[in-house]
Specification:
Elements (H helix, E strand, L loop, with lengths): L4 H4 L24 H13 L5 H8 L6 H14 L19 H13 L5 H11 L11 H10 L17 H12 L27 H9 L1
Helix pairs in contact: 2-4, 5-6
């Protein structure tokens, strides 16, 4: 039988919820966004010492002055007073985030075969103004690339058509037969390899070649 089966069964209609702790009890339930915005606006309007505000604070129905100060500072620093996610007061594992993650993706697009050391050198150079910057480990770089779905596929570099009998015979003739079937009787200094090479003749050069031709 699956574990916690009773938790997956839909309860009957009109089942009352259990007790939900008020945010003032510090049980992990944040104040609603409406309450946060109202508290910040009251602070900005100078209504913190209003009699109604003090009474609501005594009844634990309004945020504490220190809490309002925290809301106001957050509003001024980041532009909003929204609640943060709970982390249990434990920092997460240091990962590549924010602007460094964008830089990593752009660098991989430009240089997909770059090593982890080269990636670290690039990120360090882009963060040279930050005295607290720390070098990332290869595992952190790999996890960051997985989060943004940057993957590398290993492929074979073997040209299997080179193993066909016709191509095997041509290669045998090239190395072991004399000209014009091979290069066995050719001085190696006169052999020019033009594999994957290209050339063009245009402009003044073409005119000179025509004159000499």
């Amino acid at each position: 039988m699956p574990r916690n089966l009773d938790q997956r069964i839909r309860p009957p209609l009109q089942v009352f919820r259990g007790h939900v702790h008020h945010p003032s009890e510090c049980r992990g339930n944040p104040y609603s966004q409406d309450t946060r915005e109202m508290a910040v606006q009251n602070r900005l309007n100078g209504n913190d010492n209003h009699q109604n505000t003090i009474q609501l604070q005594q009844q634990h129905l309004y945020p504490h002055p220190d809490t309002v100060t925290r809301f106001t500072n957050r509003q001024q620093q980041v532009g909003h007073s929204r609640a943060y996610r709970h982390t249990g007061n434990v920092r997460s594992v240091r990962e590549i985030q924010g602007n460094n993650l964008i830089l990593l993706s752009l660098y991989r697009v430009a240089l997909p075969k770059a090593t982890h050391a080269e990636v670290n050198a690039f990120l360090y150079e882009m963060n040279s103004h930050d005295p607290h910057y720390q070098i990332y480990s290869p595992s952190q770089i790999c996890r960051a690339e997985q989060r943004i779905h940057l993957t590398k596929k290993r492929t074979s570099t073997t040209a299997y058509q080179a193993l066909e009998p016709r191509n095997v015979q041509w290669r045998e003739n090239y190395w072991n037969m004399n000209y014009p079937f091979g290069i066995a009787d050719i001085d190696p200094r006169k052999v020019i390899d033009l594999d994957e090479a290209a050339g063009s003749v245009d402009g003044d050069q073409a005119e000179r070649y025509q004159n000499h031709g």
